Amino acid sequence: MMDGNMQELDPSPIEESPVANEKDSYFPPRNSTSPAPSTRSSSLGLSGHSLTWWLLRTQRYSSYAFTAFLTAHITNVSLIPLLTRSLPASDTYLLLTRPYYQSAIAEPLLVIAPLAVHILSGVTLRLHRRRQTALRYGAESRADRRTLAWPKLSSTSALGYVLAPLVLGHAFVNRVLPLWVEGGSSSVGLQYVAHGFAKDPWVAGVGYAAFVAAGSWHVVWGWGKWLGWTPEAEGWEEEDRERGKRRRWWALNGVAALVAGVWMAGGLGVVGRGGEMGGWLGRQYDGLYRRIPILGSRY
After folding, report:
1. What is the pTM of this model?
2. What's the rounded Cα separation, in Å, for the pair 164 and 159?
3. H-state helical runs in the chain
4. Extended beta strands in the chain, E state
5. Greatest CA span in the chain, whole angstroms?
6. For the segment 163-216, what is each residue's pLDDT rounded down to a tens digit?
7. What are the CA-CA distances from residue 4 to residues 7, 9, 11 (Å)?
8. Angle, CA 186 vertex, CA 185 and CA 190 arms, to 5°
9. Contact indicator for 274, 81 with CB cutoff of 8 Å
């Protein structure tokens, strides 16, 4: 009797993919009472954790070292100029402290390696999740994979992709170019940056503002995620959860705006208005800026 009431349905994937809902938070939910997962072997042969877990931790801990460098760097190029209101005086502090994070040991450990690892782990994590989705839905051919949506890109990750070329461009102009042309950056300081602003205020100003804004929001929201303070973080015991989400959203954006404002006040308000250097030093700076690909002809 039941056979006549049964209806044949086409198979379809589940509505919510476990990949899409995979939690990235470092800390488990505060109200979680589930037991710890049993030890198992991942595809890398590392017991206990998946590749996603390792990539997230790699991305997290690489940001620790780079944040230490970024704090010292912002202090030198923004906070001190904002306090002294003098480029020569600020350059004195910069030249005294810069060797600590530009030495042969500190620079690779605090700057180059953490930055490279942070970017590569983020890209690898996105590709790995894409591959997991393809395997889950049985998308073996390229045509099948094209029908699948990519994993959702958060605003923090999107800012990271915007920030990466800006960071590399900033490093090229202020670090790589002096090393390539002059064999060192001993003569490159805040006056070199001020000279670039004076020569081409529009390109320098817009590029610097984009760099500071993207960097401030990416770093603040990234740390908010590590510390479990983002609006979507679990484990918050609040009577009005939506109101709590709004409070955290405004708080993180407020901190990011404060960081960007102070950074720009020293960088654009003081260093950016330092003016063009004259004489032999100005000609030396012009020679460096002219080596910049594409934009060098503007100097």
Report:
1. 0.80
2. 9
3. 51-74, 80-84, 87-101, 106-107, 113-136, 142-146, 155-171, 177-182, 190-199, 201-226, 241-267, 279-289
4. none
5. 100
6. 999 999 999 999 999 999 988 888 889 999 999 999 999 999 999 999 999 999
7. 8, 14, 20
8. 80
9. no
